[in-house]
Amino acid sequence: MTDNTPTSQSGTRICVPCRLGAIGAVVLVLAGGFAYTGGWIAPHRLSTQTIVNQFQRNDGLHEGYRRNHAKGVCVEGYFESTGGAAQLSKAGVFAAGRTPVIGRLAIPGGNPQAADGSVPIRSFALMFKQADGQQWRTGMNSVPLFPVHTPEQFYGLLQASQPDPATHKPDPARLKAFAEANPTLGAFQGWVKSHPPSSSFANSAYYSVNAFYLVDAGGKRQAVRWSVQPELPYAPVTDAEKGEASFLAADLTQKLAAGPLRWRLMLTLGAPGDATDDATQAWPDDRQQVDAGTLVIERASSQADGGVCRDVNFDPTVLPSGIAASNDPLLAARSAAYALSYQRRSREEALDAHGQQASR
What we know:
The protein is an alpha+beta fold. It has one domain (17-353): Catalase core domain (Catalase HpII,  Chain A, domain 1, Beta Barrel). It is 26% helix and 23% strand. It contains eight helices and twelve strands. It has helices spanning 20-29, 48-59, 151-160, 172-181, 185-194, 239-242, 247-257, 329-353, and strands spanning 40-41, 46-47, 71-81, 97-107, 123-129, 135-141, 206-207, 212-215, 221-230, 261-269, 289-302, 323-325. The radius of gyration is 19 Å and the shape is globular. The two termini are 23 Å apart. 49% of the residues are buried.
């Protein structure tokens, strides 16, 4: 899911060797690493540093880049609110009107030279800048659920997916053992298998995955998950695109040359009993949805050239008054890992600026 800075639930066993690519996507889609802001997760003393270091073991160290979602492009635009969610949340972003937005479209993984076709997931991070100075930051993925529930489980998945030095690929036996011990992987892999990756950043939907709360002027809280749904019709990636190293950025530039790109911001309202602390559990399809407005992307720029998103930490717990984090353990964990990733790449860039080492 984004530093911006991946048996079924019924118990069915899954064939890990048959789905090795999907399990690899599990590792890549999850954002950054997981540990609380204090640096440790009780009771096993799993630290932020341990998780982020494992990302570097799996993907290699690429100085000056995010430890996950390293390959991406900056975007700019605005959000045009309909006012349809203003009764649910006192956040200024939901009042009728326009809010400036900075964002980042990316693919998961820590290798900034990775081929776009190497993973079936896209990510979309956004920072809404309210007129009152408050910000709403969100990191979304093109899959609506996570494969694991806790930071400890994610660390286990990272370890199981570390490439073997001899083959440079994960050991299928280790992945199989992890999958059998963690049956929530099945729901995630089933979704990925039934939803081929999109042919473009612009025709994909993106999901908050974690639950949050909307808070109205009277303090009433409403559980929510959100997504942005594209105006362009979905189309699966083509065989020709799979052979291109960087087709996603090129396609985005081409589409923006013809005009702005748009997504609808849809708020899915949770009902009593819907899990707010477990991102492996999808909510029922019949939950009420509120159309909050239109996200409009007008421009793109390269992060390598100092794009507007380069120095933004898309921490999903940076929220304005009117939106609150849920008790999902992954949220605080993502926040801490994003911060550590940001610190490391910023330090590397600073050293590069002083000529002490190369950061790219």
